[in-house]
Design a protein that fits this description.
Chain A: Keywords: FAD, Flavoprotein, Oxidoreductase. Chain A: Pfam families: Acyl-CoA_dh_1, Acyl-CoA_dh_M, Acyl-CoA_dh_N. Chain A: It comes from Roseicella aquatilis. The structure holds 2 protein chains of 2 kinds. By secondary structure, chain A is α+β, with helices and mostly antiparallel strands. Chain A folds into 3 domains: about 80 residues, no CATH class; about 110 residues, Butyryl-CoA Dehydrogenase, subunit A, domain 2 (Beta Barrel); about 150 residues, Up-down Bundle (Butyryl-CoA Dehydrogenase, subunit A, domain 3). In chain A, the strands form 2 sheets. A 4-stranded mixed β-sheet of chain A has the order 1-4-5-8. The two termini of chain A are about 30 Å apart. Chain B is of the alpha+beta class. Chain B folds into 3 domains: about 110 residues, Acyl-CoA dehydrogenase/oxidase, N-terminal domain (Butyryl-Coa Dehydrogenase, subunit A, domain 1); about 100 residues, Butyryl-CoA Dehydrogenase, subunit A, domain 2 (Beta Barrel), CATH 2.40.110.10; about 140 residues, Butyryl-CoA Dehydrogenase, subunit A, domain 3 (Up-down Bundle). Chain B has 11 helices and 9 strands. In chain B, the strands form 2 sheets. In chain B, strands 1, 2, 3, 4, 5, 6 and 7 form a 7-stranded mixed β-sheet that branches. In chain B, a hairpin with a 5-residue loop joins strand 6 and strand 7. Classes of the chains: A alpha+beta, B alpha+beta. Chains A and B meet through helix 8, helix 9, helix 10 and helix 12 of A and helix 7, helix 8, helix 9 and helix 11 of B.
Chain lengths: ~400, ~375
C-alpha cells in the first residue's frame, strides 16, 4: 500500500505548476479568482497554449495528440489548473466529443474534427438535455429523419452550455421512435451555422448567460456526420459519461475556494472587530469542509488506483460518491464565501461584464460572491443530479 | 498511488477474518460478554497464535514486525466482529508506549509475554475533570530514591480490570493543566497501592476505576518530566486502530441494513423498493466510503515526522470517522425500524460500539474544535 504520489508524479506536478505560473495571463487568473467565468477569448488562448505544449487533450489516444499520462497525472494536471485557477481545456471538445469520435468515429471524422477540436479552432457544445428529458435523458424526443444523404433534425435542446460561442454541436437524436427508449438514439455532429438552428439565451438566477435553448427546425445534417452506427448513439453517450472518471470531485477547485475564503475571513472583521476567522462558529464551519475535502481527496485517490487497473470502460459507481460530496463541498464553499462578505456580497451586476465594480460600491473581492453562490446551486443538479447519483448507487452498489 | 495489500498482509487479513467468522458469531459474542471477564481467553490465545498480540513489535524482540497498515487491517476485522478482547489497550496503546518509551531491557522482558497472551495492558489517563484533555493530569508521581510513587485516581480505564500492568499518566511537576511535567509510568496492576473496580461499558466492553495510593512504578516510559509528546504519539497511533475498527463496524452495520431492506416487506413489497430509503442507504455508503478513505489516510498520516502536522492529520481522521460513524450508526437503526431497537438484534450493538468509538480520545466535535483552533488543514491564499 502506497498512498502517496510517486516521485515522477510529484515532479510532474511541479512542472505543471511552473508552466501555469509562467504562461497563464494575469487577467485570466484574476477574473477566475473573482469567481467569474473566463471569457471565450481567454479560454481559446489558454487552450492553444496547452495544445502547443501537448497538454490540451489528456484523455485522447496518443495518435491523436494525447500525452499518454497515467490517471494520476491527469488528476494532478486538473487539480493544478483548478488551484491556479486556470481554465480547463474545453470539456465539450476534449472530455466529451473528442474521445467519442476517437473511439467510434470514422477515419475521415477523426482527421476532420480532432485536430481542430484540440486546438479549439472549433468550439463545441453538447446537445443532450431537452425540456422533457433531463435526468431521464433517454426520453429525448428531438427527431432525425434520414432523407437521401442527410438527416433532417427537428426538436429542441436545452441547458446547452456556451452554445452562444459554439461552432459545432454534438447531438443525441431519435432516429427510431418505434424502438425501446435507449435503442432508437443516434449521435450526430452538426455545424451551428446550418440554417434552421436558433440559439436563445437562458439567463440564470445570478444574471449570467451560460446556458441556452437550441431549436432545430428542419436542420439538414449530412449522413457522414453520424458517429458510430445509426440507433447505437446510446453507446456513445454511455462511453462519454464513463469518461468522467473523477466525477465532479473538483478537489483543487474547492481547495482554491477555501484558501480564498480563509484569506478573506482573516481580514474581514466581525462586529467586535475580531477577524471573522477567529469566530469559533465560522472557523468550525470552515474546518468541517476542510475535513470532508481531505476525505474526498483520499476517495479520489482510491478511485484513481482502482481505475488504473481496470480494463473495461464502464463508469465506476464510486464516481457517484465523488459527485455528491464534491458538489456539496463546493456549494458550502460558495455559501461561506458569500457569508464572509457580509452585506457587500449583495451588490447586483452583470457577472460576465468586465469592470462590473467600476462604481466602487463594494470591496473588489466581495463583488459577485452571492452570484457565485446562486450559480453553484446548479452543481448538484447537472451531470446527473445528486438524487440520480443516489439512484445509481442504490442500483449498482447496494443492489436495491 | 497503490491501495493493494501485499501477499502477507492479505494472509493476515484473511486469517483474522476466518477466525472471527468461525468463532465470533453474534451468539458466541453474547456468551463471551456474559463470562466473568467479559471477553474470551480462548480467543485471546488464538490471537496470540496468529501473531496479533505481537503485531507492532520488532521481530527480533519476539514480535510480528507489523506496520500501521497491519494494525489497520486487524482492527477493521475486530470491528466487524465487535470483538471484546483488550487488543487495542494491550497491543496498540500499551505496545505503542513500550515501543516508543521503554528501555530495550524492559521490552525484552515484556514483549514475549504480551505476544504469548500472558500479559494484558491498559492505559490509565482519564480523570474525572479531564474529559479529552490529555494534558489535564492531577494524579501525581513523586520521586522516591530510584522509584516513583503514584497517588491519584483514574477513570474509564478501558480493560483496566483484566490488565496485568497499567500505563499511567501522572504529574511530576507543574500545574494540573500544564503540558510539561507529565510522566508516563508502568505500574503493576495487582501490586500494593492499586485498587480497581471493574465494570461494563455500554458497548459491552470492560473498564475500571483505578485508585493509586502510594503505588510504586515499575518503570518510567519516556521522559518523566516531559511525557506528553509520547502520549500524543501513542494516541495518534491508536487513532489508526480506532478508525479502522469503526470502518469495520460501519461496514457491517451498512451491510446488515441493506440485507434487511431487501427482505423486510411492508405494503406488499420489500422496503428496499422505496426511494426515500434507497437514498438514505446511498448516503450511508457515501459516509462509509469517506470514512474508509480516512482510515487509509490514517495509516499514512501517522507517519508524518512533524508532531504538530501529525496531530492535525489524526484530528482530521477522527473528525471524519466520528461524523460518519454517527450517521451510519443512527441510520442503520432507523432503516431497520423497531427490530434494531432490541438487545437481541446485532445492529444496536454496532451502533453502541460506534458511539463509544467516536468518543475515545475525543469525539468529532472535539477534534473539529481542535483543528479550527490550529488553523485548519488548508493554508489561506
Amino acid at each position: 500500500m502506497e498512498l502517496r504520489f510517486s516521485e515522477a508524479e510529484r515532479a510532474f506536478r511541479q512542472e505543471v505548476r511552473d508552466f501555469i505560473a509562467k504562461e497563464l495571463p494575469k487577467e485570466t487568473r484574476d477574473r477566475m479568482i473573482a469567481g467569474k467565468s473566463p471569457t471565450k477569448q481567454m479560454v481559446v488562448d489558454w487552450q492553444r497554449k496547452l495544445n502547443a505544449k501537448g497538454w490540451a487533450v489528456p484523455e485522447w489516444p496518443r495518435e491523436w495528440g494525447g500525452p499518454d499520462w497515467t490517471l494520476g497525472m491527469r488528476y494532478i494536471f486538473r487539480e493544478e489548473l483548478q488551484m491556479a485557477p486556470a481554465p480547463q481545456p474545453l470539456a465539450f471538445n476534449t472530455n466529451m466529443c473528442g474521445p467519442v469520435i476517437a473511439e467510434f468515429g470514422t477515419e475521415e471524422q477523426k482527421q476532420r474534427f480532432l485536430p481542430r477540436m484540440a486546438n479549439l479552432d472549433d468550439w463545441w457544445c453538447q446537445g443532450f438535455s431537452e425540456p422533457g428529458a433531463g435526468s431521464d435523458l433517454a426520453g429525448l424526443k428531438t427527431r432525425a429523419v434520414k432523407q437521401g444523404d442527410h438527416y433532417i433534425v427537428n426538436g429542441q435542446k436545452t441547458w446547452t452550455t456556451l452554445a452562444q460561442h459554439a461552432d459545432w454541436i454534438f447531438l443525441l437524436v431519435r432516429t427510431d421512435p418505434a424502438a425501446k427508449k435507449q435503442e432508437g438514439i443516434s449521435f450526430l455532429l452538426c455545424d451551428m451555422k446550418t440554417p434552421g438552428i436558433t440559439v436563445r439565451p437562458i439567463i440564470t438566477i445570478e444574471g449570467g448567460h451560460e446556458v441556452n435553448e437550441v431549436f432545430f427546425d428542419d436542420v439538414k445534417v449530412p449522413v457522414e456526420n453520424l458517429v458510430g452506427e445509426e440507433n447505437r448513439g446510446w453507446d456513445c453517450a454511455k462511453f462519454l459519461l464513463g469518461n468522467e472518471r473523477f466525477g465532479q470531485a473538483r478537489v483543487g477547485a474547492s481547495r482554491e475556494r477555501i484558501r480564498r475564503l480563509k484569506a478573506i475571513a482573516s481580514t474581514e472583521s466581525l462586529d467586535g472587530g475580531r477577524p471573522l476567522m477567529e469566530d469559533p462558529d465560522f472557523a468550525r464551519k470552515v474546518t468541517e469542509i476542510e475535513v470532508e475535502l481531505r476525505a474526498l481527496e483520499m476517495t479520489v485517490m482510491r478511485v484513481i488506483a482502482t481505475e488504473s487497473k481496470r480494463k473495461d470502460k464502464k463508469p465506476d459507481p464510486a464516481t457517484s460518491v465523488l459527485k455528491i460530496k464534491g458538489t456539496e463541498i463546493q456549494q458550502m464553499c460558495s455559501e461561506l464565501l458569500m457569508k464572509a462578505a457580509g452585506p457587500y456580497a449583495w451588490v447586483d451586476g452583470d457577472p460576465e461584464a468586465e469592470g462590473s465594480n467600476d462604481i466602487d460600491v463594494a470591496p473588489d473581492w466581495a463583488f459577485g460572491l452571492a452570484g457565485v453562490y446562486f450559480n453553484w446551486r446548479k452543481q448538484s443538479i447537472y451531470g446527473g443530479s445528486n438524487e440520480i447519483q443516489r439512484n445509481i448507487m442504490a442500483k449498482a452498489f447496494l443492489g436495491l | 498511488m497503490d491501495f493493494d495489500l501485499t501477499e502477507e498482509q492479505r494472509l493476515l487479513q484473511d486469517s483474522v477474518a476466518r477466525l472471527l467468522t468461525d468463532r465470533y458469531g453474534f451468539e458466541q459474542r453474547k456468551g463471551f460478554m456474559a463470562s466473568s471477564e467479559g471477553w474470551s481467553r480462548d480467543i485471546w490465545a488464538q490471537y496470540a497464535e496468529l501473531g496479533l498480540l505481537g503485531l507492532p513489535f520488532a521481530e527480533e524482540e519476539g514480535g510480528f514486525g507489523g506496520s500501521h497498515v497491519e494494525t489497520m487491517l486487524v482492527a477493521e476485522q475486530l470491528g466487524k466482529a465487535l470483538a471484546l478482547e483488550p487488543w487495542i489497550p494491550t497491543v496498540v496503546i500499551g505496545g505503542g508506549f513500550l515501543r516508543a518509551g521503554a528501555e530495550a531491557g524492559l521490552r525484552a522482558e515484556l514483549v514475549p509475554r504480551i505476544a504469548a497472551g500472558e500479559l494484558m495492558l491498559a492505559f490509565a489517563h482519564t480523570e474525572r475533570q479531564s474529559r479529552y484533555d490529555l494534558n489535564d493530569v492531577a494524579t501525581t508521581a513523586k520521586r522516591d530514591g530510584s522509584t516513583w510513587v503514584i497517588n491519584g485516581r483514574k477513570g474509564m480505564v478501558v480493560h483496566g480490570d483484566s490488565a496485568g500492568k497499567l500505563v499511567v499518566t501522572a504529574r511530576t511537576a507543574g500545574g494540573q493543566r500544564d503540558a510539561r511535567g507529565i510522566g508516563v509510568f508502568l505500574v503493576d496492576a495487582t501490586g500494593p497501592g492499586v485498587t480497581r473496580r471493574g465494570y461494563r461499558t455500554v458497548d459491552g466492553q470492560r473498564a475500571a476505576e483505578v485508585e493509586f495510593s502510594g503505588a510504586r512504578a515499575e518503570a518510567v516510559l519516556g521522559n518523566p518530566e516531559d511525557g506528553l509528546p509520547l502520549v500524543d504519539q501513542v494516541v495518534d497511533e491508536t487513532i489508526v486502530a480506532l478508525a479502522a475498527e469503526a470502518v469495520g463496524c460501519m461496514q457491517v452495520a451498512h451491510d446488515m441494513t441493506i440485507d434487511y431492506m431487501k427482505t423486510r416487506k411492508q405494503f406488499d413489497r420489500p422496503i428496499a423498493s422505496f426511494q426515500a430509503l434507497q437514498h438514505r442507504a446511498a448516503d450511508m455508503l457515501v459516509q462509509l466510503e469517506q470514512a474508509r478513505s480516512m482510515s487509509y489516510f490514517a495509516a499514512m498520516g501517522v507517519e508524518e515526522r512533524d508532531p504538530a502536522e501529525r496531530r492535525r492529520n489524526m484530528a482530521s481522521v477522527k473528525a471524519q470517522i466520528g461524523r460518519s460513524a454517527r450517521f451510519v450508526g443512527q441510520q442503520s437503526i432507523q432503516l431497520h425500524g423497531g427490530i434494531a431497537m432490541t438487545m437481541e438484534y446485532a445492529a444496536g450493538h454496532y451502533f453502541k460500539r460506534l458511539t463509544v468509538n467516536d468518543g475515545m480520545f475525543g469525539d468529532a466535535d472535539h477534534w473539529i474544535r481542535f483543528l479550527a483552533n490550529a488553523g485548519g488543514l488548508v493554508q489561506a491564499a
